[in-house]
Write a structure and sequence with these properties.
The chain is α/β, with parallel strands linked by helices and 282 residues long. The protein folds into two domains: 4-19 and 176-215, no CATH class; 32-169 and 219-280, Rossmann fold (3-Layer(aba) Sandwich), CATH 3.40.50. The chain has eleven helices and seven strands. The protein has helices at 4-12, 21-31, 34-47, 69-76, 89-101, 139-149, 187-190, 193-203, 225-235, 252-261, 265-271, and strands at residues 59-63, 81-86, 108-112, 126-130, 159-164, 238-244, 275-280. A seven-stranded mixed sheet has the order 3-2-1-4-5-7-6, sandwiched between helices. α3 crosses α4 (69-76) and α6 packs parallel to α9 (225-235). It is globular.
C-alpha cells in the first residue's frame, strides 16, 4: 500500500508472538479423535446439503488429506476403500498413527504423495478435496489430474466433492490469521508481500525463509474464483452443487447479498471466500 518498509511497520502493530511449529503439530494430533473427525465431516456434508455419498463399494480418494480427518470419518462410517494422500510427510505419519489408534487401518490407506503423481492406472468413484486447492501449486493441473483418475463412461460417473478457501483475493484470503492479532480485510491484496513475508518469518515461521506466498511450506497459489470456474468449464464437469460462502447462511441478509455479488464478474473474485461444490464427470 505504502511500500514494503512503511507497510512492515504498520502491520507490525497487529502481530503477536512466535509459535513452535512442532508443538502446534503435537497439539493438533492430541486434538484429533474420531469425534473431531466426524464433526468436521458433518460440517462439510451439511454445507453440501448432506449430498456426500457413503457407500462401502465405492473407491474414495482424499486429495490433500492433511492429518486424515475426512478419510477417517468415511472409514468409520463404513466406507471400505479410502485412500488419503498429502505431500507433507509429518501429516501422513500422524494420519497413519490415528488410523491404527482408531482401528481403521484395514479400511483407509495413507500415502505421502503430490497430487500430480497419482498413478494413471488408478480410478476412483469419488475424489474428495477439502481445504487444499488454494494451497496446491498449479491448481489447473491439479484439477486435470483429478479428472484423469475419476471413473467415467462404462466405469460409471465419477464425482469430485470439493471445498476450499479462503481464496487469496477475498477479504481474509492471505491466511495470516495465525500471526496477526487484528485482521485487516484484503491484507494480502493491499499491502506489500515483502512486508508480510518478513513479519511471517519474525513472528510465525522463523525456519521458513519463503519470500512469497507461493513459496511457503503450506503454499498459497493466489487462484481467483473466476479462474476456478474456468477450470471447471474446461473439464466439462456437470455441476450438482455450487455453494459460495456458505458460512454466511446464519445471516440471511448477508447470504442473499453475497449470492448477488458473486454473480458479478468484476466483483466475484474479491468476495468469493469459500467454495463448496460437487461436480460429476460425464
Amino acid at each position: 500500500m505504502f511500500g514494503k518498509t512503511i507497510d512492515y511497520w504498520l502491520l507490525r502493530l497487529f502481530t503477536h508472538g512466535r509459535h513452535s511449529e512442532a508443538e502446534e503439530l503435537r497439539q493438533l494430533e492430541r486434538d484429533l479423535n474420531i469425534e473431531s473427525a466426524q464433526a468436521r465431516f458433518e460440517k462439510w456434508n451439511r454445507r453440501l446439503d448432506n449430498e456426500i455419498p457413503i457407500d462401502p463399494a465405492m473407491r474414495f480418494l482424499d486429495v490433500g488429506c492433511g492429518m486424515g480427518e475426512m478419510s477417517l470419518a468415511l472409514a468409520q462410517r463404513g466406507c471400505k476403500h479410502v485412500t488419503g494422500i498429502d505431500r507433507d510427510p509429518d501429516y501422513i505419519e500422524i494420519a497413519k498413527r490415528c488410523a491404527r489408534k482408531m482401528q481403521l487401518q484395514d479400511k483407509v490407506t495413507f500415502e505421502c504423495m503430490n497430487v500430480h503423481d497419482i498413478p494413471n492406472e488408478k480410478r476412483y468413484d469419488i475424489v474428495l478435496s477439502h481445504e487444499m486447492l488454494e494451497h496446491v501449486e498449479r491448481p489447473g493441473d491439479c484439477l486435470r489430474r483429478i479428472n484423469g483418475v475419476l471413473k467415467s463412461g462404462s466405469d460409471g460417473e465419477g464425482r469430485i466433492i470439493i471445498a476450499f478457501g479462503p481464496l487469496f483475493h477475498s477479504p481474509f484470503g492471505d491466511h495470516t490469521n495465525r500471526f496477526f492479532r487484528i485482521r485487516i480485510p484484503w491484507t494480502g491484496v493491499l499491502f506489500s508481500e515483502d512486508a508480510i513475508m518478513r513479519l511471517r518469518r519474525e513472528f510465525w515461521r522463523p525456519a521458513d525463509e519463503a519470500e512469497s506466498f507461493e513459496d511457503t511450506r503450506e503454499g498459497l497459489n493466489k487462484m481467483r474464483f473466476s479462474e476456478f470456474l474456468h477450470y471447471v468449464e474446461e473439464m466439462g464437469w456437470r455441476t450438482e452443487r455450487l455453494i459460495v460462502n456458505p458460512q454466511l447462511k446464519r445471516w440471511p441478509a448477508l447470504w442473499r447479498l453475497s449470492n448477488l455479488i458473486v454473480r458479478v464478474p468484476l466483483l466475484r473474485d474479491y468476495f468469493a471466500a469459500s467454495v463448496y461444490a460437487i461436480y460429476r464427470r460425464p
